Known about the structure:
The complex is a heterodimer of chains A (299) and B (340). With 299 residues, chain A is of the alpha/beta class. Chain A has a single domain, classed as 3-Layer(aba) Sandwich (Rossmann fold), CATH 3.40.50.620. Chain A has helices at 40-55, 72-81, 99-113, 134-141, 200-206, 227-232, 282-294; strands spanning 4-8, 11-13, 36-38, 60-66, 85-89, 119-123, 145-159, 162-171, 174-181, 184-188, 239-241, 261-267, 276-279. Chain A has a 9-stranded mixed beta sheet, sandwiched between helices. Chain A is globular, with a radius of gyration of 23 Å. The model of chain A has no long low-confidence stretch (mean pLDDT 91). Chain B has 2 domains: 4-200, HUPs (Rossmann fold, 3-Layer(aba) Sandwich); 222-339, TPP-binding domain (Rossmann fold). Helices cover 27% and strands 29% of the residues of chain B. Chain B has 9 helices and 18 strands. Chain B has helices spanning 17-33, 51-54, 75-89, 100-113, 192-195, 233-246, 254-258, 289-292, 324-339; strands spanning 4-8, 10-11, 14-15, 37-43, 61-66, 93-97, 117-121, 123-130, 137-148, 153-158, 165-169, 186-189, 204-210, 222-226, 249-252, 279-283, 300-305, 318-321. In chain B, helix 3 (75-89) crosses helix 4 and helix 6 (233-246) packs parallel to helix 9. The termini of chain B are far apart. The mean pLDDT of chain B is 93. Classes of the chains: A alpha/beta (299), B alpha/beta (340). Strand 9 (174-181) of chain A pairs antiparallel with strand 13 of chain B, so a sheet runs across the interface.
Amino acid sequence: MSLKIVVLAKQVxxxxxxxxxxMTPEGTxxxxxLPAIFxxxxxxxxxxxxxxxxxxxxTTVTVITMGPGRAAEVIREAMYRGADGGYLLTDRAxxxxxxxxxxxxxxxxxxxxxxxVDLIIGGRxxxxxxxxxxxxxxxxxxxxxxxxxxxxxxxxxxxxGVKEVIATRHIxxxxxxxxxxxxxxxxxxxxxxxxxxxxxxxxxxxxxxxxPMELAPDTTFAELPYAEQYEKKPYLKLGQLTCADVNADxxxxxxxxxxxxxxxxENIVFKAKESKVLSGSDExxxxxxKELLNDRLIG
Amino acid sequence: xxxVFVYCEIEGTQVQEVSQELLTKGRKLANTLGVxxxxxxxxxxxxxxxxxxxxxxxxxxxxxxxxEGLAPYTSKPHTAVLVNLFKxxxxxxxxxxxxxxxxxxxxxxxxxxxxxxxxxxxxxxxxPHDDKKTGKHYDNLLYQIRPAFGGNIVATIVNPENRPQMxxxxxxxxxxxxxxxxxxxxxxxxxxxxxVPETEYVTKVLDRHVQAAKNNLKGASIIVAGGYGVGxxxxxxxxxxxxxxxxxxxxxxxxxxxxxxxxxxxxxxxTGVTVRPKVYIACGISGAIQHVAGMKxxxxxxxxxxxxxxxxxxxxxxxxxxxxEEVVPKLIKYYKQNSK
Lengths: 299, 340
């Protein structure tokens, strides 16, 4: 048995390391001040896919990411770790998409590049939005079942011609083991197994992979310094898909396809309370404890 | 038609607290809008057991879906229940808990109905909206307010055109209040087979372990919480010691959980537990809004931080300028000295 696996990955601003320059004075996000990283839980998802590829020879792992040209870095990073290849889904028409319009675009792309997909695996949520909505919405758009909050894939087997997956998932206050027929969408938690590191040989092999739109506007692969390599090694050209390539309905893409609208965004400034400022000295700490005990707040 | 709906999450025959919190909020929204509050309960063997846990929150109509395949929860049958019920009832608002069930179910339902869903709201209000692009004016929209972008901004989201306007809210964010223990609401026992085709029962639950929560953060009157500034897993030992003498619970910020200093279920904040203790001792927590969203209702906030300009200091009642390492042992020492 071999499997066709699509991994959904997103390049995200690293919201965990937000500095004082992360917001512009107008209250919008200064994306250039934040490093762009592989969404952490998508790496956990990639690991689950690669484990199945190890177990079932002939399995293919294809990464699909939606974003601007620089998001192709996510595909290369996944290839360094073992993915077979990937597609950058990119179009101005996708801009301003909420989770529903994003899911529509991704689902349409999956139907286009991998109509006979067995498993679609993504991170539970991305750290820039924390919504956890895209996985289930892609599943619904494709009419597939879903297993969210996955801790690990236990088994994939074929019973009477039907492929099935058994996975453990984290639920509120416990764990659950569930079985579902394939095809199916899985979303993986950050507490699942971490992703394997880059493989040096793969880095050497794939580091020159490029999506067409990463080229400067007036260059082609033929004009690159390693032009003959791009001729001989077609895998160096990463897949790139536009809205038209996947036959997406423009009304369901981007801002037009997004039922939710941002009414207002506020940069958070805490209203200052009158606080008592103390030093860490014995005297001050002792005084504080006495005050709290006196007010019956502790003890 | 056009009522406010709350999806009630049920474990066995027990309605979850988050659902009762949302019923309370839903009642208020329905009053503002001048419509009715309806609730949906789906499970197995729940008829006669859940009504008294739902109606007193001011529910005018409760739809019960009682069938063997509806418990434990699986995605597709519960999606079919809501999608088909909503096609029939055309609610204007639907609320559900932002926990594993709600965050599995909500997006699927919103996709099927092409309606907007906002996850993890910290506040819900009703108000007008002017669309600058189309020039259209809307009255009585649901403002879905949530921190975003790792908690550095707070966004107000609206769904001008699509219904229902869907939102998930975490447990503890809203307050559950019984409106009237004898509130008279209508109970409708729905015919599950009409809503859920047999083909939807695809997920088999092979094994399930649910334990009572290991900590009591939600009910704690004193919380000692640690952030990235605690520095290590070992550093948290000190906090446990302080918590022990104060009879407090230990919590953590997202940064501390992400760094592996503390367990995931100790996380306080928008994507963790929301708490309202009498005393909140923040140790080495800088105070990202995502954290503050989960603890700002605390009575007295004490911040221990070596950075005088940590954002949390602006909402603290007491600021101790010092390292956690230095101050926490002193707190323990002087508490022991003074309390006896």
